[in-house]
TrEMBL record:
It is a multi-pass membrane protein. InterPro entries: MATE_euk (IPR045069), MATE_fam (IPR002528). Keywords: Membrane, Transmembrane, Transmembrane helix. This is Protein DETOXIFICATION. NCBIfam families: matE (TIGR00797). Pfam families: MatE. Belongs to the multi antimicrobial extrusion (MATE) (TC 2.A.66.1) family. Its main location: membrane. The keyword Cell membrane does not apply. The chain crosses the membrane at residues 47-72, 92-109, 130-150, 193-215, 265-292, 304-324, 344-367, 388-412, 418-439, 448-468. The keyword RNA-binding does not apply. It is found in: Membrane.
């Protein structure tokens, strides 16, 4: 421990006293259990101040498509299937890419805000707007040719036609995403999470009313559903933008700037790495679901797998909140030059995510004989779901921890490294292991799920190893140098 302290002091002396002053204000020494408990409680308050509104926002935004599907289901099974297919395949792919691209802002805006470089946050957000709108434009042909794309993927002609028509009306939604996602990350970096949550809640209420009014009352069908869904996302995007320019964000927004078009290539590189890192997890689940469809009892296997994934998906709403909170806390502390606070925040994040995962698992195990009945009347499916429940519970623990640690990686700017790591864990190790157990060893859908758990476990182990071996003082320097580069400065210019 003494050697580590000495190394930190030696490293700190390199930087002209800038970080030394912050280091003196860093977390005080912890002596005994009482001190640890007090500091843990203080950090937990900061973490959950961010996590609770983020979780609430995730539920509200997830509810938009859920309400649309409910009203579409009242029109008929084909309409319900059309909305589901369009959302998961046609809209799902570009949304996943844009969500990943925007997560680069969690690194840059979070670290800039921690370093009191408030004026840079608006520039970063505008750069992200440029990149995401370009992504939305390139995705337009996918929506225009959605019908033949869906036919090529094996969907029926009637479903492909209905989903294709719905997709045409959903093009404006992509540009709402391109505006909304960067502004969300911009506000989260400043801990202005309550404003995001309020806007999401209002959007959900308006969405429910206008869905009823246009779809059922006026009888506009899927066209009405599309218009309401487009309108809801644009409401969120415009409400967040108006909140930003109203002056509520102070110096972080100083108006539009041509600087948004500078250094786009460098900004794009970490944005793409962020997108790959986020999308690999989605593609991992899609690949495993596809393998489930090749089993002997494919219908029963897919039904059971889908029910378990649905339960895991709702638990992921909490994990997403932890992901947001951990990335903001770590990026803010690194930007502020507080290595010990960043390190302690990681500890609190890890312990909190583990406890929440264990809590959800306990609830799931207790209700293992009953919860599958909500989704199916098939005794065979219910039996298979019950057999999968211990694995689902283990997945909840791993998923909560993995999302929290991924937030740490985003906050520290490790997206490129984690993207390579995810590729190995999921596609070199997880999927082949699951396929081998499912087909070679005749373990069926349980074998596929074992493969998913093994991939997650390996990912967590590697993330823990990265965090354990990280010199957080050097990460503060890396954050400082990264911000200097985006301001067009170099370390030598600063110290001369």
């Amino acid at each position: 421990m003494a050697g580590g302290e000495e190394e930190e002091q030696q490293l700190l002396s390199v930087y002209d006293g800038h970080v030394i002053n912050n280091y003196e204000d860093d977390i005080r020494s912890i002596n005994g259990i009482n001190d640890f408990a007090k500091e843990f409680f203080i950090e937990s308050k900061k973490l959950w101040y961010l996590a609770f509104p983020a979780i609430f926002t995730s539920f509200c935004q997830y509810g938009l498509i859920t309400i649309t599907q409910i009203f579409a289901g009242s029109l008929g099974t084909t309409q319900l299937a059309a909305v589901s297919v369009e959302n998961s395949i046609i809209s799902g792919f570009p949304f996943g890419m844009m969500f990943g691209l925007s997560s680069a802002l969690e690194t840059y805006c979070g670290q800039a805000y921690g370093a009191n470089q408030s004026e840079m946050l608006g520039t970063y957000m505008q750069r992200s707007w440029v990149i995401l709108n370009a992504m939305a434009i390139t995705a337009v042909p996918l929506f225009i040719f959605a019908t033949p794309v869906l036919k090529f993927l094996g969907q029926t002609a009637s479903l492909s036609r209905e989903a294709g028509n719905f997709a045409l009306w959903m093009i404006p939604q992509q540009f709402a995403y391109a505006s909304m996602l960067p502004s969300t990350k911009f506000l989260q970096a400043q801990s202005k999470v309550m404003s995001i949550a309020v806007i999401a809640a209002v959007a959900l209420c308006l969405h429910a009313f206008f869905s009823w009014f246009l779809i059922l009352n006026l009888g506009w069908g899927l066209v009405g559903a599309a218009m309401v869904l487009d309108g809801s996302w644009w409401f969120i995007a415009m409400a967040q933008f108006l909140y930003i320019i109203s002056g509520a964000c102070g110096e972080t927004w100083s108006g539009f700037s041509w600087k948004a078009f500078q250094n786009l290539w460098g900004f794009l590189k970490i944005s793409v790495a962020s997108a790959v890192m986020m999308c690999l997890e989605v593609w991992y689940i899609m690949a495993l679901t596809l393998f489930a469809g090749y089993l002997e009892d494919a219908e029963i296997s897919i039904d059971a797998f889908s029910i378990c994934m649905n339960i895991l998906g709702w638990a992921c709403m909490v994990a997403i909140g932890l992901n947001v909170a951990s990335s903001v806390r770590v990026s803010n502390e690194l930007g502020s030059g507080h290595p010990r606070k960043a390190r302690f925040s990681v500890l609190v994040i890890g312990v909190s995510s583990l406890l929440i995962g264990l809590f959800f698992t306990l609830i799931l195990i207790v209700s293992r004989k009953r919860y599958s009945g909500i989704f199916t009347n098939s005794s065979e499916v219910e039996k298979l779901v019950e057999e999968l429940t211990p694995l689902v519970g283990l997945s909840m623990v791993f998923t909560n921890v993995q999302y929290a640690l991924s937030g740490v990686a985003i906050g520290a700017g490790w997206q490129t490294t984690v993207a390579y790591m995810s590729t190995v864990c999921y596609f070199v190790f997880g999927i082949p292991s699951g396929a081998l157990m499912a087909y070679k060893f005749k373990m069926g859908v349980q074998g596929i799920w074992y493969g998913m758990v093994l991939g997650l476990c390996l990912q967590i182990c590697l993330l823990l190893w990265m965090i354990w071996t990280t010199n957080w003082t050097k990460e503060c320097y890396a954050a400082e140098e990264r911000l200097r580069q985006w301001r067009g400065e170099t370390l030598a210019e600063e110290t001369d």
